[in-house]
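Here is a protein:
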Amino acid sequence: MSTQPLGRLTRPARRGASRSTARRRLAPGRPVPYGKALGPLLLLAVWSAGSAAGLIEPRSLSAPWTVVTTAGDLIEDGRLQSHLAASAQRALLGLLFGTAAGLLLALLSGLSRLGEGVIDGPVQIKRAIPSLALVPLLILWLGIGETMKVVTVSLVVLVPVYIHTHNGLRSIDNRYVELSETVRLSRWQFVRHVVLPGTLPGFLLGMRFAVTATWLALVVVEQVNATSGLGYMMELARTYGQTEIIIVGLVVYGLLGLASDGLVRLTERKVLSWRRTLAG
């Protein structure tokens, strides 16, 4: 019996299998269990080894076990919780006001050419100016109290929320707009059923940038005439050369940033579960 027909049948199957393998190699692959912890654990291992071997000067960078002991002492006497509560209050207020302002401005700019002409230019100018560079001016206008700190954080949050929400709004397929006009949706119905769902991916992306930027701004503004907060605690530790307390503050800020970003990403996966992307 001739094997030629069998060869003809197997070659396409082999080509199909190779193409399937190639397609699998293009994707990132399956998630690695606890893969995001690999980098921090490696960094911690290098830090610990360097401290144990005496390669790292304790005055420059305290050993991990010293930082852990210091964190325990700060928690035991309640100082860490008190400073964390003050920082969280400022962060939440700034995030709330900045998000509301950024979303409102994005809707006004995205739904009206006149609104875009009035709003987009100043926001783009603000985008080019670091928010922390405005701190001296905000101090002159608002003083050095809590209002200045919350306003600074709000300005930091406003820009990414506006930029990504506005971009998401302008990316809505024009066919949905034409369909809304055909079925005679009111302005509010159009915003509710077309605009808000269409801008949601962009808004959530902007929120990921915003929540991280909140803590970045807070660590700076809390060093301006503050009497509480993680930034104040770190500035006080710098004055007395307490490196371990500074590192505790940095670790807490990092954990807060990761937790905030993780919360937004979880919301994104739940709300946008209909999207199929490489993220899975």
About this structure: The mean pLDDT is 83. The domain at 65-270 is CATH 1.10.3720.10 (MetI-like fold). DSSP finds eleven helices and no strands in the chain. The radius of gyration is 26 Å.
